[in-house]
Every structure is written in C-alpha cells, then in structure tokens.
Write a structure and sequence with these properties.
Helix content: 10-25%
Shape: globular
CATH class of the largest domain: Alpha Beta
CATH superfamily of the largest domain: Nucleotide-binding domain of ferredoxin-NADP reductase (FNR) module
Radius of gyration: 18 Å
Oligomer: single chain
Number of helices: 6
Structural class: alpha/beta
CATH architecture of the largest domain: 3-Layer(aba) Sandwich
Number of strands: 15
Length: about 260
C-alpha cells in the first residue's frame, strides 16, 4: 500500500451520473496483485472519510476508476478537472482468484458493479480465457460499452473471446429484466463465476440451482471507513465468523457470505 498525490489524466461522464477517471499512478500499478482490489480516494474537505473505488482498468503506469455519484464525496470527485491532483492510497484488499485451469469464465455485473469486472475481463482475456459478461442496468444509457481492448488485440487476443450480454430493467437494450435471470443460460459452460453488484443481486444468485457447486466469487459493495481494517466499520457476518470487507475482502466466496 502506498499513499500519494496523483495527477488526473482525464475525467469524463461515461454514463449518466457515472464518471471514468484515469490517474497517473506508476508507483501503485506494480503493487496491484490482480483484479478486485480497490483504492481509497480523498474527496475534498467536506468529505471526512475517503471513498473506496475499485480498480477499473490498468494501462502502463495509469489506473482507471469508474464511480457513480451517490453523495457529497463522489459529487466533489466528479467535478475535478484534467491536471488536478488527488490524494489516494492503495491498492487495498484481496481480489478475485482466477484458476489457471479455468477456460471459460462468467462475469455478472449489476449497475456500477461492472467497474472491477472490466479489469478482470482484461486479465482473463490476456491469460487466454473465454470471457462471458452479463451486464445489468436500469436502462440502455446506463450500460458501459465493453470491448476487447486494442492492447489485447495487438497481443493476438481475438474479439470473439469476449461475449457481452446486456440486460436492462426497462427493456431499452438487450434482455428486458435483471441480469440474474440470464445466469442459468450461460453458467453450465463456465468454470468459474465472478460477480459484483448490490446485495439483492447476490441473494437472488444464492437461490439459482445452476450455481450450486460452482466456484462463485462475489465482490461486496459496502461503505468503508479506513480501508485498512482499523475501524471495523465494514464488518460483516460470514459462515466462519465476523470478517472485514476491506481487509478480508472485498471478494468472498458466495458460500461463505451469509445472504
């Protein structure tokens, strides 16, 4: 973990009320052990606590964070400009575990939960895996375009290795309904399943018979205080006792979490 001031390379509104910011962070990139970790970002004088943001993508010495405006802190962050600096520290947490023997993986993202899954998709594609992404959102304008990056294409990764299925609650794009309704149609060929989204999505997943016996890993979205396990503000109940999302997670096995 490292604390530093980092320069904003770019910041755009990628979707309504959802922003993509690229940071110059060559000191942090080598410390990122894999997809699923997060970075704590200080969000102005009016926001006492830093905000945990998943690593969305990595490119050279740059890190991308994707976040939704949900309050004063993220509202302040959305108003930053190119060239300004942010106080950050990280990387933190334990991320997803990709089995070297897995050939086909299924990713399920609900809303802003797609943020860490894009990094996981890039990583898995680079390892020669076939990746299927089910992305759910309220409407079509809230869906993030997910493509095979030019960097991966240049390395010989075929675009056909990535299959993206969209689900919208209003039916404006893709399947009309929740992303979880599509899981049963794609899970049989998946060696592992990775998900990030609201707790309601996880509760639904826990009731899907086709997921029984599968390696299903969930990234928990929860408010954090310190991000390092000191304040115990993100403590949850698991089947093996109390654990801290920031220190023991944010990724847990679905069978471990009490849903």
């Amino acid at each position: 973990m490292k604390q530093l001031k980092t320069k904003i390379i770019s910041i755009i509104e990628a979707m309504p009320e959802t922003y993509l910011v690229w940071l110059e962070a060559p000191e942090i990139v080598p410390m990122i052990s894999g997809p699923g970790q997060f970075i704590m970002v200080s969000c102005g004088d009016d926001a006492f606590l830093p905000r945990p943001l998943s690593v969305h993508r990595v490119d050279g010495g740059q890190v991308a964070l994707l976040f939704k405006v949900v309050g004063k802190g993220t509202g302040w962050l959305s108003q930053r400009k190119k060239g300004e600096t942010l106080d950050i520290f990280g990387p933190l947490g334990n991320g997803f575990t990709l089995n070297p023997d897995s050939q086909n993986i299924l990713l399920v993202g609900g809303g802003i939960g797609i943020a860490p899954l894009c990094f996981l998709a890039d990583y898995a594609l680079g390892e020669g895996k076939m990746v299927t992404v089910i992305q759910g959102a309220r409407s079509g304008d809230c869906l993030l375009p997910i493509t095979c990056s030019q960097k991966l294409f240049d390395k010989g990764v075929l675009p056909s290795s990535l299959h993206v299925i969209n689900a919208t609650e209003d039916g404006s794009e893709g399947f009309k309904g929740l992303a979880t309704a599509l899981i049963k149609h794609y899970v049989n060929t998946a060696d592992q399943v990775f998900a990030c989204g609201p707790m309601a999505m996880y509760k639904t997943m826990a009731q899907i018979p086709e997921l029984k016996g599968k390696d299903v890993q969930l990234s928990l979205e929860i408010m954090m205080g310190c991000g390092t396990g000191v304040c115990y503000g993100c403590t949850i109940k698991t089947k093996s006792g109390l654990k801290q999302v920031c220190k023991d997670g944010p990724v847990f096995g679905m069978g471990e979490v009490q849903l």
